[in-house]
Amino acid sequence: MATKDPIVEALKEFTTCDVSDALQKLKDPEVRNGGFLSGLSNWSPTRQQEDTKIVGPLYTVKYSPLDDPAPKLAKHYIDSVPEGAVIFISSPRVPNAVYGGLMTARAKYQKAAGTIVDGRFRDLQEQRDQAWPLWARDVGTAAPGEVVKVTGVNVLVELQSGEDQKGIRIHPGDYAIADMNGVVVLPRRLAEQALPLMRKQVEADTNMAKALAEGMTFDEAGKKFR
């Protein structure tokens, strides 16, 4: 059994919005939009209907077009997914799916935390039958082999989904937090700074929400608790 990461355990009590708030306060020049990755939403076990959440270090998978000079990975990436990892698959914008139900069966056996597909996936019913936490850009039916190939594992990738976020970099080993609000990446190097800010913000928001419910104006509550 893998040793529990204390950062992962601490992050489990926070939402993606809490993480984004903390990252925006840190104002790190390499982190845009509070670490939010646009264009990705929850599809399984249900479609944005339950309190599905994953937290874990990123295991990145890079798909490239077939004509890319980089060689295709010799072995299937799914067999080397570490326990507790969040699989992040980066795909060019193609109509083909790059992740399916059989990969989930293996990932589940490996005790991965869940999957984020910056692209299309397939076998939606299989994903739900396996109660697998999955976020993606969209669904598809065709397998990927006719248009793309895997050229890297645990390498730097760039977000492909959000047209307004071109150039967003995703590093292997950074922390992914995904829930009904979407997907946020917390750089590992900022985690220790961000966690105290999350706790402080949640306490302030809890007090503010109580005051608002009791009739205090938003301006008054903001000045008092924030």
Written description of the protein model:
There is one protein chain. This protein has 226 residues and is α/β, with parallel strands linked by helices. The protein is built from six helices and eleven strands. It has one domain (6-188): Glucose Oxidase, domain 1 (3-Layer(bba) Sandwich). 28% of the residues lie in helices and 25% in strands. The strands form two sheets. Strands 1, 2, 3, 4, 5, 6, 7, 10 and 11 form a nine-stranded mixed sheet that branches. Strands 8-9 form a two-stranded antiparallel ribbon. Helix 2 packs across helix 5 and helix 5 crosses helix 6. It is elongated. The mean pLDDT is 95. Its cofactor is Mg(2+). Substrate binds at residues 100-103, 122-123. InterPro entries: RraA/RraA-like (IPR005493), RraA/RraA-like_sf (IPR036704).
Write the layout of secondary structure elements.
Blueprint: H1 6-11, H2 16-26, E1 36-37, E2 41-44, E3 54-65, E4 86-90, H3 101-109, E5 114-121, H4 124-129, E6 134-139, E7 148-153, E8 157-158, E9 169-170, E10 175-179, E11 182-186, H5 191-213, H6 218-225
Helix pairs in contact: 2-5, 5-6
